[in-house]
Every structure is written in structure tokens, then in C-alpha cells.
């Protein structure tokens, strides 16, 4: 029995010495090596040999969130809430800064100094008036008032996907320019009472907190025509906005001045939101930007402060 035990101890010693020797030759196989490199390596295809080890469940979840092979980490609920809070704070800063810079634009005094700026009426009406609700706006232009249509635009180098429907980039740009310019010739021939102001907005690159140089005032006709004025603070000049609504898709597109190569588009439903997105097509490139609604001098006069969360509370009766 003692002889058997001594043999087993000797075998165990040999095994341990073999393991130590192998670990010395290759530290990555050691339990004290770099565990990050040892868990899961994903070498891109075409770059040589690929080394793959069995991933953990957490790594499977992280890899599954990748788009077209990119490794995007799992967004946990606290992280998402933190990101949303940060974005809200950024937009509050943009709104507050823009309110200070543009709070007195599009007033009767401003139009007196800029007689060439477009107005749907010439009686000094409040051009900052906002639309109270989606149903009000939808009924005005005769589209489905149940809820705004989906507007999800994803673009790649040569293909656009509008609500998952693929369109070539070339055809999409042609269509959006046609929509934006189809009513340019008859903007002055309609009854002023058929126009509804949509409010005043600034457009800024996503994530930016810088105050934009331009501010936009929009109005929409019952037939779907879009018009308004863009004021450029850097030049001090108003720029004419002309555009149209596609009542079937509820897309709205417009141009600035005589430049038909630069087009902006958004969804009709975004005009009742305090913050939304707008897509800029310019010089062969496309960029998604953030559109933020301002509150106007009427709201400031009533409260003396800027209430970031209000919607349509400055509407004149």
C-alpha cells in the first residue's frame, strides 16, 4: 500500500513539472497570463490566420449587437438613460442659446426691417405660433390624423432605406429634389388664410451644443405647400424657404433660396415635436441633424424665462 502511494506521488510530480515547463514556454497558456487576449480574438477576414476560442455568454451578447461585423457593446439601461439625459441637456443648452440670439426674429418689428422676408399674411400675425397637436396639423393638410407616419431613413453609399424600403441613392436624391421644388413657381398665388404657421426652429449637427447661425420659420398650406423664412445671422439676410408635403408618405422637403442642390427633409409629424431629426442633402452627401423648436418672444414676455418642456403654449388665440 505504501509502495502504491509513493508511485502515485511520483506520477503527480512528473505531471506538475510538465505543466510548469509548458507554461514557461508559452505564457499565454498559463492561468496568470493575459486573460483578455486569451478569451476571444476576432481577426478580420483576409488579414491572415483567424484565432477563435469559445466566447463567454457576455461576449456573445456584445458581439450580437454588432452591425455588419462591428463590435458594439451592449447598451445597458443605466447607460441608455445617462445618454438620453446628456442629449436632453445638450438640446436644452442649444435651445437656451438660440433663444437669446433669435428671440426677437420674425416679429412685426423684424419684418418691418426685412420687407423682403416671406410672410403668409401681412398683418403682423405671430409667426412663432406653433401647432398644438398632431390631429390639428393632420386635419389641416388632410392626412391620416390617427398618428404620424413612420419616418426612418437609413443611408449607405449607394442605397437609401426609407422605412426599410430600398431606393438607389441617385433615384432618392432626384425624388427628394422634385418634392422640394415642385411648388416654387406658385407660392404667391394662394389665399393667406389657407396657411398655418408651424413655429420657429434651429437645426444643429447631432451632439453639437454650438448656437447655429440660422433660424427657420415655417408655414404650411392646406394643399401641402411649405414656405417660410430662414434668417442667416452671419449675413443678416433672410432666405426664402419653399417646399412641399408628400401626403402619402408624410415626408416634407424644402430648399433655401435658389439653391436647389441643397435639400432638407423631415416628417410632417416632427413639426409638433420640441426636438426631432432632419436630414440634409448637400453636395452629394447626406447628414442627419437635430431640429429644435424655439419658444419665441410671446412666451418670454409671459414668463420671463425659458420653459424647455412646453409645446405650443405660446399660441395666440
- The total count of strands amounts to 11
Poorly predicted spans: 1-5, 7-75, 298-317
Please outline the major beta sheet: 8 strands, antiparallel, barrel
Question: Quick one: overall form?
Answer: globular
Beta content comes to 25-35%
- Helix % is 25-40%
- Give me the strand/helix succession: HHHHHHEEEHEEEEEEEEH
- Terminal CA distance reads 104 Å
Please identify the structural class as seen in this structure.
Answer: alpha+beta
**For the largest beta sheet, what order do the strands appear in spatially?**
4-5-6-7-8-9-10-11
Mean pLDDT reading = 74
The protein's oligomeric status is single chain
Radius of gyration: 30 Å
Q: Total helix count? A: 8
Notes on the structure:
Helix content is 31%, strand content 25%. With 317 residues, it is α+β, with helices and mostly antiparallel strands. It has a domain at 105-303. An 8-stranded antiparallel barrel has the order 4-5-6-7-8-9-10-11. Strands 1-2-3 form a 3-stranded antiparallel β-sheet. The termini are far apart.
Amino acid at each position: 500500500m505504501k509502495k502504491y502511494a509513493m508511485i502515485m506521488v511520483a506520477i503527480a510530480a512528473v505531471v506538475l513539472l510538465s505543466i510548469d515547463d509548458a507554461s514557461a514556454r508559452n505564457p499565454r497558456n498559463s492561468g496568470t497570463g493575459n486573460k483578455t487576449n486569451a478569451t476571444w480574438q476576432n481577426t478580420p477576414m483576409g488579414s491572415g490566420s483567424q484565432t477563435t476560442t469559445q466566447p463567454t455568454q457576455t461576449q456573445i451578447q456584445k458581439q450580437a449587437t454588432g452591425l455588419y461585423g462591428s463590435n458594439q457593446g451592449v447598451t445597458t439601461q443605466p447607460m441608455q438613460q445617462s445618454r438620453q439625459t446628456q442629449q436632453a441637456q445638450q438640446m436644452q443648452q442649444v435651445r437656451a442659446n438660440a433663444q437669446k440670439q433669435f428671440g426677437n426674429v420674425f416679429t412685426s418689428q423684424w419684418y418691418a426691417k426685412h420687407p423682403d422676408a416671406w410672410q403668409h399674411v401681412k398683418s403682423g400675425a405671430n409667426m412663432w405660433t406653433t401647432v398644438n397637436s398632431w390631429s390639428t396639423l393632420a386635419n389641416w393638410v388632410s392626412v391620416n390624423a390617427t398618428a404620424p407616419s413612420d419616418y426612418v431613413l437609413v443611408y449607405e453609399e449607394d442605397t437609401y432605406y426609407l422605412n426599410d424600403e430600398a431606393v438607389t441613392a441617385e433615384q432618392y436624391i432626384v425624388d427628394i429634389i422634385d418634392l422640394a421644388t415642385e411648388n416654387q413657381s406658385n407660392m404667391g398665388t394662394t389665399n393667406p388664410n389657407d396657411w398655418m404657421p408651424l413655429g420657429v426652429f434651429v437645426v444643429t449637427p447631432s451632439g453639437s451644443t454650438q448656437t447655429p447661425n440660422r433660424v427657420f420659420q415655417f408655414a404650411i398650406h392646406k394643399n401641402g405647400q411649405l414656405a417660410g423664412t430662414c434668417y442667416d445671422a452671419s449675413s443678416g439676410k433672410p432666405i426664402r424657404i419653399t417646399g412641399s408635403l408628400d401626403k402619402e408618405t408624410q415626408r416634407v422637403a424644402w430648399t433655401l433660396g435658389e439653391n436647389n442642390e441643397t435639400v432638407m427633409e423631415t416628417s410632417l409629424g416632427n413639426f409638433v415635436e420640441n426636438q426631432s431629426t432632419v436630414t440634409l442633402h448637400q453636395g452629394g452627401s447626406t447628414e442627419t441633424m437635430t431640429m429644435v423648436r424655439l419658444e419665441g418672444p410671446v412666451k418670454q414676455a409671459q414668463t420671463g424665462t425659458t420653459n424647455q418642456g412646453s409645446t405650443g403654449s405660446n399660441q395666440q388665440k
